[in-house]
Amino acid sequence: MNQTLAAAPAEAETVLRYRQCRWCSSPTEHFRLLCPVCGSTDMVEQSSAGFGVVRRVGAVVRSEVLEHRIRQSCAITLDEGLTIPAVVTASRYEVVPIGTRVRLHAASGEQETAEFRLA
Ligand SMILES: [Zn+2]
Question: Sorted alphabetically, which InterPro entries does this protein's record hold (predicted)?
């Protein structure tokens, strides 16, 4: 397990996995079987360091009034070059502009979306 950049306490699964093509080194989601660029099936599983940048901002998924938090759906481009759908949790008074640096808070299970917080 790669612990070098793991700053967050390990309360849940906080490793975000992805696949990287051995031929063209394109990164893609961990569940894909084919490289979206060259179509190769020769992919290696990698772990993301968990840092990225907000690329697109979508709707507020949930507003937790008591905790003054919002959960906003976003597209995050990881430092590894892969763009994934995710949820960013922020304070209700914070805006989440495009280009915001975020850090992985909880990785996705098979179904769930990865959760990020402002870095
Ligand atoms: Zn490829």
Answer: NA-bd_OB-fold
